[in-house]
Amino acid sequence: MKCRPATAVRILAARWRRERRAGDHERGIASMLTVAMAALLLMVAVVAVGMGQVIASRHTAAAAADLGALAGAVEASCAAATRVVIANDAEPVDCTVTGSDVVVTAASRTHTLLGLRWTLRSTARAGPARR
User: Angle at the Cα of 113 (from 109 to 119), degrees rounded to 5?
Assistant: First the structure.
């Protein structure tokens, strides 16, 4: 007795549905998803830490430039501005005294993250208000 093709297809389809319901075809997928999600979470954390370092370094440079410009305006000298910039963990880049205006540029470097370092600069002016 021969099996008709339609009957063979029905038998295979029924077997496939039983195996599918049993979940045999999805064995191990949860561990692969867990590894992928952990890798994604690690990458997001590394990027977040790097962005935090860049933002903190930018704020350090801005604060050092602002305070250096104020100190330079009080004493009308770049020496005072340079001392204040160095005391605020930044590098003095430029200082200009023009009359009663003091313009200070300070730089701050980020920590090394994945082999990358950035130098961020900020410029501030102190002196009487301009009209």
Answer: 20
The verdict on residue 107 lying in a domain is: yes
- Domain around 75: 42-131
Of residues 20 and 50, the one with the higher pLDDT is 50
Dihedral sign (CA 33, 38, 42, 45): positive
Tokens of 76: 């009308």
List Cβ neighbours of 118 (8 Å cut-off, separation of 6 or more).
Answer: 54, 57, 109, 110
- 93: buried, middle or exposed (CB in 10 Å: 19+, 13-18, 0-12)? middle
Report the pLDDT value the prediction gives residue 67, as an integer from 0 to 100. Answer: 95
**Interatomic CA distance for residues 82 and 33, integer angstroms:** 54
Domain count, the chain: 1
